[in-house]
Amino acid sequence: MKNNQQSVLNLLGLARRAKQIQSGEGSVLKSIQTGKAQFVFLAKDAGSATIKKFTDKCSFYQVSLCESFTKQQLSQAIGQSRTVICVTQSGFARKFEELLTMN
Length: 103
What we know:
Layout: H1 2-17, E1 21-23, H2 25-34, E2 39-42, H3 48-60, E3 64-66, H4 71-78, E4 84-87, H5 90-101
Parallel strand pairs: 2-3
Antiparallel strand pairs: 1-4, 2-4
């Protein structure tokens, strides 16, 4: 599983370089509400209010959510200190789901 997690983080860095992500609470929230967000990463060590807000929004707008990584891991993958990140391109989103569901 560690290998898949590292692959996900590497792909997240690639998605950032391809300008296919939004990061930061405000930007991600707006992307979810407007239907642009395809997949959301939320740090498992985020604050309880943040976790509740994004869990509820992703559930309501039917956006896939991943809470498998820490804030440090996500921040290192994209090179910015962030708690929540969304992927806006469906191809990347499909690959993230595939990698995270593999055993």
